[in-house]
Amino acid sequence: MVKQKSRSFLYIAILVFIALVCVLFFLYSSFFYIDKITVTGTEKVSESEVLHLSDIKQGTNIFKVNNRLSSRSIEIHPLIKSAQVIRHLPREISITVVEREQWAVMPYNDNFLILDPEGVCIDRVVNLPQGDYCLITMDKPPERVNLGHAIATQGVKMIEEICRLLPQQDKEQISQFHYESEKNEIIIYTLRGSEIKFGNLERLNEKTALINQVFEMEERLEEEGTGVLQYIDLRFSGQPVLQIK
User: 124 and 102 in contact (C-beta within 8 Å)?
Assistant: First the structure.
């Protein structure tokens, strides 16, 4: 009786083993060879660049694709913020990318760096690019800048938060944002040359609301011919300190 049970268990084990081998052969058979790869979300980056970085090729078994590793490889590209690789059984792969937004320009040596809202350098150009960009300067620019690396992330984040609260007509009156890294403060320069000492992000809503009044003051002084606003200090609570020359 014991021998019969042992023999039955052996037969079952052999059958399970054969079934697993068959399943394994099926999973790695040509039935699951990739025959279609779709790439979406690209505008500035070509599909061929994305495919090259992903290292996914037609004719590869779909189960040999490491989704996470391929996504990270694609994200190496400085213009790509994120990538997602998804299997669609039995033979299709989809790649969805989110490109970085060209948001700010920063003078650097004899060039201009194009930054996204996270401060990541996505391009380096010789001439100031046309478009609705935020111009950023800083007291201590990095000694070396590589594409895909973040620059002054704290300062860029502060400027992005300020810009997010400013109406478009106010942003159009600003010539540049200057970041002082040692103080971790922002100085805003208007098109008329006035200096707005904005400071940090404390009382953010209050200070951004006052910026429009600065433009109105500049215009009034110009019309009346009574002086020029040199600077206004918004860093401290209470009545802002201003200097007219």
Answer: no
Bond into 90 cis (ω within 30): yes
Q: What three-state secondary structure class fits 141?
A: coil
In contact, 62 and 87? CB cutoff 8 Å: yes
pTM for this prediction: 0.80
Contacts of 236 (CB under 8 A, 6+ apart): none
Banded model confidence at residue 238, pLDDT cuts 50, 70, 90 = confident
The pLDDT value given to residue 51:
95
| Phi, psi of 15, rounded to the nearest 5 degrees | -65, -40
Q: Cα(231)–Cα(200) distance, rounded to whole angstroms?
A: 17
As given in the structure block, the two tokens for residue 54 are 């992903």
CATH, range 104-244 = 3.40.50.11690
Confidence of residue 92 (pLDDT cuts 50, 70, 90): very high
* 65 in Cβ contact with 38 (< 8 Å): no
CB 162 within 8 A of CB 197: no
DSSP string, 10-61: HHHHHHHHHHHHHHHHHHTSGGGB--EEEEES-SSS-HHHHHHHHT--TTSB
Crossing angle for the helix pair 67-74 and 47-54, nearest 10 degrees?
A: 130
Fold of 33-99: Ubiquitin-like (UB roll) (3.10.20)
Whether residue 186 contacts residue 198, with contact meaning beta carbons closer than 8 Å, is answered with yes
